Amino acid sequence: MRVEREVAPPSAPRKASVVAPANIAFVKYWGAHDLETVRPMNPSISMTLARSVTHTTVEVLESDGPPGGPSDRSSDEADELWLVTDAGELQASEGVFRRRALAHARRVCRELGSRASLRIATRNSFPTGAGIASSASGFTALTLAVRAALGESIEADADLSRQVRRSGSGSAARSVFGGFVEWPSDPADSDPAAVQIAPADHWPLCDVIAVVASDEKSVSSREGHVRAPSSPHFARRLELLDGRLKYARHAIADRRLDLLGPELEKEAIELHLIAMSSDPPIYYWLPATLDVLEGARALRDRGVPVWATIDAGPNVHLICEPDDEATVATTIAEISGVESVLRDTIGGGPQLSEEHLF
Ligand code: PMV
C-alpha cells in the first residue's frame, strides 16, 4: 500500500534583511575549550563597529520543506546561498563557506521549530576573511535574518547571543550587541552568552583600519584556536588576563584611552606572539603590518593618542578618539603597503533593513 506523506501547503514567502556589524576585540578570544560548542578558554572584550557590516537577505521559500522531502529537514539541499558581488550581481556560494553558513541556517530553523527552505543572499562592506571579523558580522546577520524571515524577534539578549555563537564563531556572540561587549568564559557554563558592558554613546571611539592585504587569510581563526594551547606562552597569557580584563573594564567605564590603548596594543602583540609560537606556527603579519605599527608609534611621539590592535590577519585597527581620527587616517594612508583605509566608529548593533538584496 502506498502511503502519501501529508505536506502542509507552503505559507506565503516571507523575506527579511538585516545589517549586522563586525566588532574589534580589545581583549581577544584566542583558544577554545571546545570548538563544537564554542566555549572560549578566556573572556574577551570588544567594541562593535558601525560601518564594517554584513547585509543579508533571507527569503522563506517553503515553510514545510520540499514536497516529498525528508520530514526532518536536517539537509540543506533545497536551500540557496548567494554572494552579492561588488557589481551587484548574485554569485552562487561554494565550498566551506556555503557548508558552514547553510548548516547554521538549518540549525537556527530547527531551533525555531521550522522546516522551511531558504534563499539567502549576503554582502560584506569590507574585505572578507582578512581579520575584520567577517564571521562575526556574517553569522550575526544570517541568524537574525533567518529569525526575522520566520517572524521571530531579533531583540538582542543572551539567548540570541547563544544562538549566533552556535554558528562556530565565538566573536559573533558579541556582535549581537552594540557598544562595548564582554563575552565571559566560565568553565561551568556550557552555553556562554555575551553581555553589553556599555552602550555605543558611552564613548564614541573610532577604528581606522589600515588594510594591507584584502585577500582571504591562509589559516582560519578556527584553526588558530586549536593551535593556541601548543604555544609555550599560552598558559602565561591566561594567568595575566584577569588583571588585563579588570584594567580594560575600568578604562572603558572611565573613558580613559591613555589606559586602554597600551593594554589593547600589548594584547594584540601577545595574540600574534602565541600564533607565531604555536605548533605549527601561524604568521598573519606582513611587512606592512609592522610599518603601520611603527606609524602608530610615530603618531604617539607627535602627541596623537592612537593605539593599534590586530585580529587574525595582517590588517591593523587603529583605535583613537574622534578629534584625532582624520589625522590618523590621512597619516596611515601614506604608508607604503597600505592598500586602503577604512574609517569606522563604534556602532549600535544589528538593524533590520528595508533594502532587500534580491
Ligand atoms: O570568532 P572566531 O572564531 O572567528 O575568532 C575570533 C578571533 C579574533 O578575532 C582573533 C579575536 C576576537 O576575540 O575577535
Tag the structure with descriptive keywords:
358 residues, 4-stranded antiparallel beta sheet, single chain, alpha+beta, binds (3R)-3-hydroxy-3-methyl-5-(phosphonooxy)pentanoic acid, disordered N terminus, 9 helices, 8-stranded mixed beta sheet, 33% helix
Low-confidence stretches: 1-10, 67-72
The biggest beta sheet is recorded as: 8 strands, mixed
Helix fraction by DSSP (H/I, runs of at least 4): 25-40%
What general form does the structure show? Answer: globular
Class of secondary structure makeup: alpha+beta
Rg over CA atoms: 21 Å
Distance between the termini: 44 Å
Count of alpha/pi helices:
9
Mean pLDDT: 91
- Annotation, overall tally of beta strands: 14
Say which molecules are bound, naming each kind only once: (3R)-3-hydroxy-3-methyl-5-(phosphonooxy)pentanoic acid
Tell me the fraction of residues in β-strands, as a range. Answer: 15-25%
Order of helices and strands: EEEEEEHEHHHEEEHHHHEEHEE
